[in-house]
Write a structure and sequence with these properties.
4-stranded antiparallel β-sheet; single chain; 15 strands
């Protein structure tokens, strides 16, 4: 057993199942039904990990690579603990790494080969509490929490693998369509959509204040956390440096770089709603915080102070450098369940 610091972010599940367009009432029952279906599907027929990706090979220019179920268990409370494995880009069965101590114009890249069947990537962890319609991302050493991939994974599961689907032949093609015989409150001649939607669980006060006083906002401050080992982050760093007139850097000593960008900002009501929605639905990568300055007010209002989060020191077993044993994680976090539920109820 080793002691690790688990960083938790809370997300509210808005939709999870099958719906008539424009209607928030689930036709497939409560949230737990979908996650029970996911567990049954993932463990059916002794699947390999390769078979647990819920969608096909990503299209060119897709920002999401394949995501797999590495492990999934259910607690005595009905909570689900899920480990996902998130694929990272590769070239000809090799992973590239850049020497970050070299100048930008002297890039030194090494390639590491891996055996056929292995998928380079990183593990991410989720604690789903269906009875409360929430889930928590559980992060350890990575700055990425995998939430974007998690949402895509579940949306694709509903779209292609749910027990609420049936095979239908249309013009010599077989497709998956909702099985209306297994859905509740189905209305004839109305389209049905599979849908998973969530957002960061927020403390209302800070967001309500900004919505009420949006006309007084005069400055927007964006904090970004960028990892030079991630290609899209490195591209952002190079763009920032170019804008500052810096075209050559002798040495980047840290893997993680923190940026802060300030700009004048005079939003209307729709602008502020869109920005707050973007914040609530963001992934844990790149944008780490957004702040606002108001007329005649010296305080900076940071959105990070509006989200529900926790940090726990827990003891777990590592199955490898990158993967934590899901059963020990379940046991360690279940011991904190009362604390977590108190955050939701506050």
């Amino acid at each position: 057993m080793s002691k690790e610091k688990a960083k938790l972010r809370y997300f509210k599940i808005k939709k999870c199942g099958f719906y008539h367009y424009g209607d928030d009432k689930s036709l497939s029952g409560k949230t737990y039904v979908i996650f029970d279906d996911l567990i049954e599907w993932a463990k059916r027929n002794n699947k390999t990990i390769a078979e647990t990706c819920t969608y096909g090979t990503p299209q060119e220019n897709s920002s999401i690579m394949r995501t797999f179920c590495a492990d999934i268990v259910k607690s005595e409370y009905g909570d689900i603990f899920l480990t996902t494995w998130n694929e990272t880009p590769t070239t000809d069965n090799s992973v590239s790494a850049i020497n970050s101590t070299k100048p930008i114009d002297q890039a030194d890249v090494k390639d590491t080969k891996f055996d056929e069947g292995y998928v380079p990537g990183y593990g991410t962890y989720f604690w789903i509490i269906p009875s409360k319609n929430i889930y928590l991302t559980v992060r350890f050493n990575h700055i990425l929490n995998g939430n974007k991939q998690f949402c895509h994974y579940l949306q694709s599961f509903l779209q292609f693998h749910s027990k609420f689907l049936k095979d239908q032949k249309i013009n010599d093609f077989r497709i998956k369509t909702p099985d209306t015989e297994n859905l509740e409150h189905f209305k004839q001649n109305e389209l049905i959509y599979p849908f998973f939607e969530s957002h960061l669980l927020s403390l209302g006060g800070q967001l309500d204040l900004l919505k009420t006083r949006f006309s007084e906002i005069r400055k927007l401050i964006t904090k970004m956390k960028l990892d030079i080992t991630i290609e899209k982050d490195l591209s952002v760093i190079q763009t920032f440096l170019s804008l500052l007139g810096i075209h050559k850097v002798n040495k980047i000593s840290n893997r993680i770089l923190n940026f802060k960008y300030e700009s004048n900002y005079n939003p209307n009501e729709n602008n502020i709603d869109d920005l707050l929605n973007l914040w609530q639905n963001k992934d844990e990568s790149q944008i780490s915080d957004i702040g606002f300055n108001l007329i005649g007010d010296s305080e900076t209002y940071w959105l990070s102070k509006s989200i529900v989060k926790d940090e726990f020191d827990i003891e777990v077993i590592h199955r490898s450098t990158e993967l934590i044993d899901i059963t020990t994680l379940k046991n360690a976090l279940t011991a904190k369940r009362d604390i977590v539920l108190s955050r939701i109820e506050d």
